[in-house]
What does this fold into?
Amino acid sequence: MAFTVKFWGVRGSIACPSPNHVVYGGNTSCVEVIAGERHIILDAGTGIRNLGQRVIQEGIQSSVLLLTHTHWDHINGFPFFAPLFQKNRTFDIYAGHLYDTGGVQSVLASSMSNPMFPVPLEALQATLRFHDFRAGEDLELGPDVRVRTVLLNHPNGATGYRIEYDGRAVCYVTDTEHVPGELDETVLGLIAGADLVIYDCTYTDAEYPSHVGWGHSTWQQGVRLCREAAVKRLAIFHHDPDHDDTFMAELEDEARRTWEATFVAREGMQITVGA
Ligand SMILES: [Zn+2]
Ligand SMILES: [Zn+2]
It folds into this structure.
């Protein structure tokens, strides 16, 4: 029973293609999760464009898109996700932070509206079903895939996800800000005992004090949370575009010395949950 994660975009804030961002990748947030028969996409950053080619090649007819929130780096790839322009495909699009403020359909529509974008949401050929929920509610994605959600500490709100399948769990916790010296009880509850946690590690602890209130966390805080919650592996994610390959390699070295169950997510990396 397949339960895999593939990283298609690992950056935060803005895409950063450059010769110094080749090893870890320059596309913004997009993670593919295959849970048995279920095809799940976490966020629609610029990384979703390349995923679109795979969806078409492999003939995947139906996918679930779980949005953490609708800041640009998490939706900018949406209008460039080629399967949306094809009939006979179905996408269920979920967001947990817009229930009381107009809903995800209207937010995506406005992001694709004149004069910001030439192709309106209504022109997409695929069948789109929009689902607004309140972060904290559970989602049922078929009989064997359970999704728990929480509201994260982020400007305009963001949703953290825990996907459970076949007795295993992967959590996607971005974007979120911590309070130094404290462990976020909401995050601890979500990630408890998970096989893999993908966490907002935009900054280092040394950088954080000059970014208070920006809505992001650090890899050191990710390690503290995951150890406390008996998580098996931590994926460092949502890399700052200012962190080039040299910086990230040093960061990865230090993180692994701190906790060997840690790794830095790279574009194109695929792993089996619980392996
Ligand atoms: Zn972000
Ligand atoms: Zn954000």
